[in-house]
C-alpha cells in the first residue's frame, strides 16, 4: 500500500479520515464486479487501474456461476469520492463487465480474509504466540519444535492486529487471500 498524507492539524484520529495532497478525503471502497469468465478480462480490469494510477489494496477473483461462465472480482481500493465514482463508471464500460456494486455505499456488508502466519519461537515466546492465537481464534495448521503455522479468518483489521502482535514473537511469513465480501440481507 502506498503511504497517504494526513492533513496537518487534523484533530480526527480515524484511519479513514485520510486526505490527499489537495486536502480531499481519501475513502476505502470495496467493489464487487461480475464479469464473463473468459481470457483477458482480469487483465483489462487491472489495466484500468494501472493505466490511471489507481491503487488496489486487495483483489480476489473466482468463478461464481459455472453454467453462466461468470466470475466475481472483489476489489478494495482507495480514492477521493470523485475518483471512486470514476472507477465505477469506467469499470461499467468494460464490455465483459455485467455488474459493478460498491459494497461500501450499498449498505451493510460482510468482509472476510483468510491468512496464514508462520511464527518461529521457543520458550515463553512460543507459549505467548499460542495464547494469543487462542484469543484471536486462529487455528494451528502446522507445528514443528521451532515454529507454528496459524490459520485465521476475519476482517482485514483483525488480520493486521494479529500480525502486529505476532511480530515481536517471531513472525516470519504471512500469506493473505485478499478480501471476499458480500452485501448483507436479501
TrEMBL record:
It comes from the Bacteria. Pathway: Amino-acid biosynthesis; L-isoleucine biosynthesis; L-isoleucine from 2-oxobutanoate: step 1/4; Amino-acid biosynthesis; L-valine biosynthesis; L-valine from pyruvate: step 1/4. One of its GO terms (molecular function) is acetolactate synthase regulator activity. Residues 1-20 are annotated as: Disordered. It catalyses: 2 pyruvate + H(+) = (2S)-2-acetolactate + CO2. CDD domains: ACT_AHAS (cd04878). GO terms for cellular component: cytosol. Residues 1-14 have a biased composition (Polar residues). Its EC number is 2.2.1.6. It is an enzyme of class 2 (transferase). Dimer of large and small chains. Catalyzes the conversion of 2 pyruvate molecules into acetolactate in the first common step of the biosynthetic pathway of the branched-amino acids such as leucine, isoleucine, and valine. Belongs to the acetolactate synthase small subunit family. This is Acetolactate synthase small subunit. It comes from Pseudorhodobacter antarcticus.
